[in-house]
Specification:
This protein is of the alpha/beta class. The chain folds into three domains: 83 residues, Orthogonal Bundle (Arc Repressor Mutant, subunit A), CATH 1.10.10.10; 112 residues, D-Maltodextrin-Binding Protein, domain 2 (3-Layer(aba) Sandwich); 95 residues, Periplasmic binding protein-like II (D-Maltodextrin-Binding Protein, domain 2). It has twelve helices and eleven strands. The longest helix has 28 residues. The protein is elongated. The two termini are 18 Å apart.
Length: 297
């Protein structure tokens, strides 16, 4: 028997709604209906009855629930045990931006304490197509990005909301004052996700950046050196703000950026990878369905 039939059955048993279950498990409604019929034919019983527009589970269906849950649990345990024996004990992560490393660092510390024998391999991908390719060819177990990915083989879950702050060195503030629009600006190059967030605001205020860089860390260093104002993720400049190396402008538009976790929709996680993803999901600072997805596996 295809165990996916049991997973579909449990979803329909929980929701008592074919349409809702189809959305929940990313199948079409006809596929869900066909899988339930296949299961009924396999056992030779009726698992659900439809009365009008309402779906009701039968006694046979109720009886199957506990067996289906146990079978799927045993299957997951066997799968995870075998994967731990055959896979290298390494979690492979692609980072679509250097800023994601700052977001991930405290979680990795906790992960290393919990699973000290598991290595974590991180690759920085400053080109989104490289990140996507790494997911599709299984070079990465998962990746963290701040772009929206639209691909029928990739699942994406938002996990972190980052504030963007407007910062300059104290010397520049003394020279130009607190009116941010009197300052020279440093920006990321056109096409980057952060540039898209604030580019229209700069144009509306007649600002043309005096310098453009390809990554946020380079901008941070340029801002510290007094070359202009930068709009950067708060996590990247937190220490510099605390020690007075940089000053934050308050009377400016409030900007935010979202980080997401992406992975192949058919990816089978080792225990270590699922543990790390669960830690990320638990620490999510915005509404995320990642934890629910992981618990459903």
């Amino acid at each position: 028997m295809d165990l996916r039939l049991l997973k579909t059955f449990l979803s329909v048993a929980k929701t008592e709604n074919i349409t809702q279950s189809a959305q929940e498990i990313n199948f079409s409604q006809p596929t869900v209906t066909a899988q339930i019929r296949a299961l009924e034919e396999h056992f030779g019983v009726l698992l659900f009855e439809r009365v009008g527009k309402k779906l009701y589970i039968t006694e046979a269906g109720k009886c199957l629930i506990s067996y289906a849950e146990r079978l799927l649990t045993i299957h997951r345990e066997a799968q995870a045990a075998l994967q731990e024996l055959t896979y290298d004990k390494t979690v492979r992560i692609g980072l679509g931006t250097a800023v994601a490393a700052h977001t991930l660092s405290p979680i990795l510390q906790e992960f290393q304490q919990k699973l000290p024998n598991i290595a974590v391999s991180i690759e920085h991908c400053f080109d989104l197509p490289i990140t996507v390719k790494g997911i599709l060819d299984n070079s990465f177990d998962f990746a963290m990005v701040h772009d929206e990915i639209i691909h029928n083989r990739i699942l994406q879950f938002n996990v972190a909301l980052q504030n963007l702050v407007w910062v300059a060195c104290p010397y520049l503030v003394e020279k130009y004052g607190n009116d941010v629009w009197r300052h020279p600006f440093i920006a990321l190059k056109q096409g980057s996700i952060y540039r898209k967030i604030y580019d229209e605001i700069l144009r509306e205020n007649g600002i043309r950046p005096v310098l453009e860089y390809s990554d946020s860390e380079a901008i941070r260093q340029a801002v510290i050196n007094g070359l202009g104002v930068g709009i950067l993720p708060e996590v990247l400049v937190r220490d510099s703000l605390n020690d007075g190396t940089l000053v934050e402008f308050k009377e400016v538009p409030k900007l935010k950026s979202v980080f997401s976790v992406i992975f192949h929709k058919e990816k089978r996680f080792t225990n270590a990878t699922q543990t790390l993803l669960t830690m990320i999901a638990v620490r999510a600072n915005l509404k995320s369905s990642l934890l629910g997805y992981l618990q459903s596996l």
